Sequence to fold (356 residues):
Amino acid sequence: MNDPIQHEFDSDSAQNDVQAQDDLQAANPSDGLEPAELINSEEGLFPIRAVAQLTGINPITLRAWERRYKLICPTRTPTGHRLYSTTDIQQIQRVQSLSAQGVGFPQIATLLGRESRNTQTKPRFTQPSPFNSEIDDQSVQNGPFEKTQETDFQAKSLIERLKQAVMHLDPLALRAVEQQALLWLPPEFVMRAILIEGLNQLEQREAWPDRDLSLHWLGHHLRQRLEWWLFQQARKPEPDRPLTLIDTREADRPLRAQELLLVMGLAPNFTVKLLPPTLSEAQRVRLINRWQARHWIRLLQPTDEAGPGPGSFLSGTTRLHWCQLLPGEHPLTITAAGVCQGGVIRCQQYLLRQLA
Fold:
């Protein structure tokens, strides 16, 4: 087997007598252990020879992962031989998977330690400032990672890679960015600080070949990611979280970066769903009435005007809200037609009060 780090540690393999015995044990299953120490899988512990056969990882490499990076912590027999539990084997397989994706062993050790710390306590997240490519201090403190200069650099690097993938219309490169981000960051933070921030920066970029096509493609891609995240939020419906449906007036228009942030900001307080973008106006009204939604939020582009609303066709339990997000932290205004206009945070605060 061509092990990527075996050569690095070959020179250390004979420094310890117990390690040398482990090597012999891997080559000769009955050697190196006393009869009482021949632990089998029925007792839940495996000698290093069995683990090497199960995982395909050389015993030298297994000891290197333990000694250098503390990736595995097997128990020991009275004579010092390693015994691995099923949990240890699962950890080894996790290390194999991360390494195959190009993650370095120091980073794997950090990630596994972070996962272990968060098994007892569910992480809490606060909303980062919109369009902040720096990792938000409060969000980092409540999230499952520690803020470092390396993490800040990694976030910026991921955003740049995402922008390049979108400008070249490369779905494989975009997927690779998402996979790497999710190794280190919680899904909500990946959505806000990597994917949506990348879309925001691209929206502000003046021109490149196929700009409209690229933004349309990324917008629909992020809609799919947002719908998955909303589904996770709504898996345990609560009676005090009324159903709120959101759409754009134009059929099949992708959501802009500010609009994506607004939807995520409302989700903790309401059961939020996006209406299918291909439905006609009449079909949307029928669906809203069938679902008995409490609120219907319609998103307008900055240049749009609110048209005649379908209020007379809605059931008496549904309230219609128009929202027009403007660039930056624009102050909140309510037009004569009842449209709330302003920056994303001010509009979100207003809607939270109206929907409560």
Notes: The CA atoms of residues 159 and 198 lie 5 Å apart.
